[in-house]
Amino acid sequence: MEEFITEIQNNTGIMNFEILESIKQVKKTSKYRELYQLIVSSNSEIKILETCSSEGDVRFEVPILSLLQTYQNYEKYKKELSSCFSANFIGEFLVRENMDKFVDILTNLKDEYMPVVNKYIHRSFGMFTIKDKFHFVLNINHIQNIMTEDLYKRI
To answer: Between β-strands 133-139 and 126-130, what pairing exists: parallel, antiparallel or unpaired?
Structure first.
């Protein structure tokens, strides 16, 4: 960042020093960074709502307070929470932290395993709020992908 600032100051004169300092300050106080630090430091237990639909969708929820500690934090980060990036980051984090619950779903599919897991592809997490909980939707194919990824790491 410092090299970038020096280069702009010396070569172009397009941006002034105050603007560059404000860019550095935004990086230091990123609301996304604050939000994700809050989430990663939480100890959130999820609850599976729907084990696996015929299309492979799995639904789970987590209380807002267990992730964000206060409703004031929910209001503070509402804009950041509404992004696809946040849905994917938080969903991925919660799945990997609670993998045992999802592996059980995958292993209990039995005869439906091949048509359900291999027919659809997980592209991104769905995330929405109902009352005091975040609800997430993912495709069971993603659990298989994570398990395969973990297996390759062990080999």
So the answer is: antiparallel
Tokens of residue 68, six digits:
């964000």
| 57-63/126-130 β-pairing | unpaired
CA within 13 Å, CB half, 112: 15
Cβ atoms of 119 and 52 closer than 8 Å: no
- 138 in Cβ contact with 57 (< 8 Å): yes
Q: Whole-structure pTM over 0.85, yes or no?
A: no
Closest to 134 in 3D by CA, of 99, 92, 95, 87: 87
CB atoms within 10 A of CB 73: 18
In tens, the pLDDT along 124-135 reads 999 999 999 999
